[in-house]
Specification:
Strand content of chain A: under 5%
Structural class of chain A: mainly alpha
Radius of gyration of chain A: 18 Å
Distance between the termini of chain A: 30 Å
Largest sheet of chain A: none
Largest interface: A-B, 32 and 31 residues
Order of helices and strands of chain A: HHHHHHHHH
Oligomer: homotetramer
């Protein structure tokens, strides 16, 4: 079984997810700059989710790039990941339209945590098919970075009830952790 | 004629179908968890349809994977399948927004039954092009599993008028039947 | 320059066009079968456009399949075709929501006629790159079928002002002409 | 790392961007031709953005066509470009629905200018990976045309506050500059 269509289908779904989020930026009826002010929180939540979904696409790309084989279990693990990612536009909009209130921020973290778990399952499924001594197994290692991300999301969810901005800051930390990888940290995490 | 573009076009259409369904989850104006409660039936219908469309993509992937040739008739049989699948977001939303009432649940089954018939026609068209002794013909066999799915949908439609939940339970049965295939049953069905 | 991305981009745009049309089928708030009755004209216009866009995808697939080369002019001829096709969801919805009234039906024909002209230009651009003795030039010939379609659309537009159903009947005639090709007629038209 | 998925993902995102813009053309409830009149500015802004996004796809296609290698930095430079392009539907709609008023026209230019900068960064990232003596480096040269476009956008933004139509005229100039390239100018610009 070839991985080409799995990649193509994932590209399609992720491309749509990343693009329909922008539809939440409702076009103002006034032509003044001030009409954009109420859109700022929606825009910020859009940027955060655009980066997060971009990270998933990027990692998905890297991971599939170094595997040779996929099977039925991998296909479903991949669809499972796409399911959680498909909920990101909803939670993004809910968070943005309610100025980063507690519950929307917490649920945003729940969806990202499940997406992280789904990604972890997908990585394990791919290693199961391609062998414990495959290039992927070596690259992913114990996947400390992925597990750390899930742990931070899991911590952010209850912390959102203390202060929603703490949770938001943690979401940004995870995104930055993937965006600007310190090679030394990366090596350590992926041992 | 190569099958690459048929796969790419189908991937695109199915990716859009599976993703636009999430747009039915209208973003609540309140930031409370209780604001998500009215969305539960819509979410459940989304999950059911996500899984169903995922199954179609998965089976489509497997089927196209083992054929060599496509012709004009196959292209149209494929577009016919995509037509019925394109109606899934509508019936999903109608069913979810009306708390699984009788008519929406019945029409949901009608669309899935027609999608099943369209898939059956596509399989026959592919066998016609690739030969009765092709790998596909051997794999699909008499396609008892596909025919059984259509039969269950056909039974579910009138049963929706007895109790909509019976029909819903049958839809779940079909989905589970494809999701968790007992290899023995699968072999028997595909003889 | 390879044709792969031109095909992929066209597949993406056409997949989206064919799928977003279904969003015009507004989900009724009532759960009765009667709630679907007002949607019948919208559904019929959807079916007509689904078939028409499907025909374009099919023909596009066949045409690109037998050419080797594309150039900058072809890329723009292709984007020009996609532009007219991108207007189909709008004209489809306008026609369906106004019960096939005169003006929407006429404008529907205008867009289809321009799409036909754009397809003709694309075919000529491809022949210009691939040579007058290429497989495409032989297959397309003088493209009588394409020119006949444009002529029928051009006739349908004024006839819509006599009776909108005459124009609609002509749109169906063109679609059927492409869907069920009489091989003899096809050969004669493509001489 | 192969460039195939970067192309496929970009094709998907650009295809969606170019197609969802048409959803801003709200379907009128009346069936008269006059009902289309209020849509004219929205339609014109749609045409302008369709051409602009088409130009980006076209240039993206050409640029990726002549490179061999991509790396993680290129993937992110590409996602950065897609981010700015994803804002085009919003600014297009805001400009069209407010009859090309000052602020929407200026912000439209801001987004296009940033897209131009992002494209420039992507080109530099690709040259960094493929070498200063690669085919891309030779073709792009100092990229005078790209830099000129950014300069025109940068000039158009303040000029929008003098007269919005001056800015619009400059946007059209840039589009035409890419659409109808004078080969001599092109050679000079790309020295």
């Amino acid at each position: 079984m070839t991985k080409g269509r799995l990649e193509a289908f994932s590209d399609g779904v992720i491309a749509i997810i990343i693009t329909i989020m922008v539809l939440e930026l409702a076009v103002p009826h006034e032509a003044e700059l001030s009409a954009l002010v109420p859109l700022i929180p929606i825009f910020l939540s859009y940027v955060l989710s655009f980066v997060n979904v971009g990270i998933y696409w990027n990692n998905h790309h890297h991971m599939l790039n170094i595997v040779q084989h996929v099977d039925g279990r991998v296909l479903w693990a991949n669809i499972h990941l796409l399911f959680w990612l498909s909920l990101v536009p909803f939670t993004t909009a809910w968070m943005g339209e309610n100025d980063f209130s507690t519950w929307p921020v917490a649920i945003y973290g729940v969806v990202l945590a499940f997406a992280g778990v789904a990604y972890y399952i997908l990585a394990r499924s791919l290693i199961a098919v391609n062998g414990r001594d495959s290039a992927l197994a070596a690259a992913v290692g114990r996947d400390r970075k992925g597990l750390l991300s899930i742990a931070i999301y899991a911590a952010a969810i209850p912390l959102a009830f203390v202060n929603a901005w703490i949770a938001c800051a943690l979401y940004v930390v995870v995104a930055v952790m993937w965006l600007i990888p310190d090679r030394r940290i990366e090596k350590q995490l992926n041992q």
